[in-house]
């Protein structure tokens, strides 16, 4: 069988190759494993035999998550509140600004770190050649230090972000989905870390963080357009420009490149180029596809906002996820 190897697939080919992968994997499973495979005992046996993550790594992740939470409190107290006071922002905006400033700082740091690790050399060509992930794949290999640092910081951030969404941020229409997303991200990170699917994982991280940077920029400039009873049109322009870039980056990175690079290599590549006894392929891919559908769900909020702006329902850029009575449901 000739391998279809492309830098970026198309949607039709993704569907065709995914169907081929499902059929091939099921045939391999029936021929080699089904008679001896019992659920859930065989699953946990595979988990024990093939996944390894040192307990110290888990402890370090939890410690860093606690440190990030403490750092966030200090960031709000010593940076965000003085800035809000200096700019003479309203009480409502002063409550929203710290969340966006913190998120911008973290997403920018995380994405630049991932970008630097993935693209700075020709050592890893996972973005330009997604199937190269499986060229030297081995479950016994050591994870490169640079990739492990990315996993360490990203996992700790999402552990912190789960706590932050529930206890530190305004409650919105999609906050439950946000918590579910964070828990899914933590599961994917720990699972791919332990199962040595980190090469797929770092590509997932690279394609997801960049759009959040522009979203937070759009929010911050929106908050700053009225300061001390003065309207600043330049901030309005920067907010709208950031939102346009955010929308474009969301579609390109999460709805175009993510399925046509990550979902392409995670199933098709793993089945036809990975080891025959590679475990957890259906579980891993189910979580990745679930992440893709969450991205589609959130994109509908973006389209709703664009529609409301175009039809005049909204006269300016607003966060369509926020509840009307968010102050009464805001977590302390």
TrEMBL record:
Pathway membership, UniProt: Sphingolipid metabolism; Lipid metabolism; sphingolipid metabolism
Transmembrane segments: 58-80, 100-119, 177-194, 230-253, 286-307
Gene, per the UniProt record: TM9SF3
Name recorded for this polypeptide: Putative ceramide synthase lagr-1
Primary localization class, coarse: membrane
Single annotated GO MF: sphingosine N-acyltransferase activity
Keyword Transmembrane helix among record annotations: yes
One GO process term, biological-process aspect: ceramide biosynthetic process
Pfam families assigned: TRAM_LAG1_CLN8
Record keywords: Membrane, Transmembrane, Transmembrane helix
Cellular component GO terms held in the UniProt record: membrane
Residue intervals of the TLC domain: 84-311
Membrane topology term: Multi-pass membrane protein
Subcellular location: Membrane
InterPro entries recorded: Lag1/Lac1-like (IPR016439), TLC-dom (IPR006634)
């Amino acid at each position: 069988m000739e391998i279809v190897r492309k830098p970026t697939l198309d949607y039709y080919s993704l569907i065709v190759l995914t169907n081929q992968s499902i059929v091939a994997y099921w045939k391999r499973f029936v021929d080699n494993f089904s008679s001896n495979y019992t659920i859930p005992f065989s699953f946990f046996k595979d988990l024990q035999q093939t996944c390894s993550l040192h307990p110290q790594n888990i402890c370090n992740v939890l410690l860093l998550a606690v440190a990030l939470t403490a750092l966030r409190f200090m960031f709000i107290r010593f940076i965000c509140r003085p800035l809000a006071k200096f700019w003479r922002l309203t009480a409502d905006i002063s409550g929203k600004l710290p969340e966006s400033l913190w998120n911008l700082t973290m997403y920018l740091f995380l994405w630049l770190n991932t970008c630097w690790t993935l693209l700075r050399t020709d050592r890893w060509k996972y973005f330009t050649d997604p199937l190269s992930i499986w060229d030297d794949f081995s479950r016994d290999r050591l994870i490169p230090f640079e990739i492990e640092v990315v996993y360490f910081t990203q996992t700790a951030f999402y552990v912190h972000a789960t706590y932050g969404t529930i206890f530190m941020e305004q409650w919105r229409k999609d906050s439950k989905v946000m918590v579910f997303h964070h828990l899914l991200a933590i599961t994917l990170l720990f699972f791919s870390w332990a199962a040595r699917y980190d090469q797929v994982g770092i590509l997932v991280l690279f394609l997801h963080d960049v759009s959040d940077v522009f979203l937070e920029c759009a929010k911050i400039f929106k908050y700053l357009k009225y300061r001390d009873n003065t309207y600043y049109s330049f901030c309005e322009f920067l907010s709208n420009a950031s939102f346009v870039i955010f929308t474009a980056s969301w579609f390109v990175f999460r709805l175009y490149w993510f399925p046509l690079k990550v979902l392409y290599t995670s199933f098709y590549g793993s089945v036809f180029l990975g080891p025959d006894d590679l475990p957890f392929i259906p579980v891993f891919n189910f979580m990745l596809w679930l992440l893709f559908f969450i991205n589609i769900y959130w994109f509908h909020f973006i389209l709703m906002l664009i529609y409301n702006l175009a039809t005049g329902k909204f006269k300016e850029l607003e966060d369509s996820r926020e509840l009307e009575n968010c102050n009464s449901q805001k977590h302390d």
